[in-house]
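[audit] Reproducing an earlier prediction to check determinism. Same input, same settings, fresh worker. If the tokens differ from the archived copy the diff job will pick it up downstream; this log only records the rerun itself.
[audit] input (293 residues):
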Amino acid sequence: MSSFLSPYEDARHALRPGEHEAFYFAFTAPEGAVFGLLRTLFGHDSVLEILVLHAEGTVWLHHSAAMPGPERADLDASGPRLQLRCLHPWEAWNCSFSGPVRSPTGQEAPLLLQMEFRATTSPGRYTFGPYTQAQQDGRLRGRIQVGDLDLTGEWLCYRDHSWGVRPMGVALGWTVAWVPERLYAVRVETPQGPAGFGCFFTADGVAHSLHRPEITAVPGGWRVEEREAGLEPWTFARIAEPLVGYLGPAGHEAFRTIPQPGDLLRDELGPARFISPTGEPFTGFLEQARRLE
């Protein structure tokens, strides 16, 4: 892990054919009643935007694939409706959406989302083959209005800004375990064996790299550790039904209830309760993807 990223690296990159660039914000309320994902994914000649929101028992979805619109500023990672604009590189972003969303059962409602991301940690740089990932913790503050629900507050959040050639065909699955300002552990299963990366923070706030965290199932949940790197075991379990997405080749993904031809992986993500090695409880986020048979 390297924490140095230049300000210009938080801007849009010039993409060649076969390359993609992703911007996303995963967020959750501390108790897990409201959580979701905001994402734009750019290809050489395309843009995909995804918004998925779990709000007190109902899942709301927006998905749009389009050709790029008029040329935007480098610090603007917006799609047609989902607006993601950098205010200060690696410090602050504005996230907004206004438009209709639908539930998996076909119910439709207007959604107005206006939030600002503020970083609480420096970004970490990770590489996976030809793909570069920057990950950063923070908070989303603002307002969510959907249907009769009107929420104003602060959400735990981590953001991902990645670019290069997405190795979708390489992974058999992965697990991402995140606890704000405490832990970011990624384990990827490949035909050649497991790989991984991430970091954890000691009590004095110092970040330490992870290289191949071990994630194993235990009664009622999972455990993550990498004793060689100094990470003692954390345990964790989901506290809400996860959002379910299906991932195909790079640029082809959607949140829906059933797979379709061309899907490669099933991806589940949502809030989880983590217990630290010293017994302290924290709310975080858990993502688990598995290759479809």
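[audit] rerun output stored. Observation attached for the diff report: The two ends are 33 Å apart (CA to CA).
[audit] end
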